[in-house]
User: Fold this.
Amino acid sequence: MLELYCTCRKVASSAFLKDILREKNIVAPVLRTENGKPFLAGDPLFFSLSHSGALTAVALSDKAVGLDVEDMLGKKPHAAILRRLSPAEREEIAGEFDFLRHWTSKESYVKFCGETLGKLYKKLSFVGGKLRLNGEVLSVPLRFGTLYGDGYIFCLCGGTAEKIVCKQR
Assistant:
């Protein structure tokens, strides 16, 4: 099971998560790991939260999952980040979409692991459509897509290999 819920209405991600859990009759406190990754105490359901621009999104899965969403219309300067990418990564990036595909793959993996971006950023690369940690290809599945008329890009890391059920609200 892998479900993606998203909304563009003004709502805190924690409130959006609570609404979804309530609808699913899941009653479990949300706790945080030492690195700040939220999880449901005593429940086998995994989730990941992300927001960008007006979008708030929650991924639910029966397996560990990481989610990152990014606003494709909000132009942001990426020069500082681009300089820190490997030459192979920079070679693949021809525009905003390519950059965000690279970025969301890394960010979703960091959330999947429950680590911090600062700890993993220099060790991660996304080249040829494959995510690598210290040069070794990771076997974790990555799924990319767009939401709200291609206004947002997302990457789901982990979860099950099933089709994503996306519920826009």
Summary: The first strand starts at residue 2 and ends at 7. The mean pLDDT is 89.
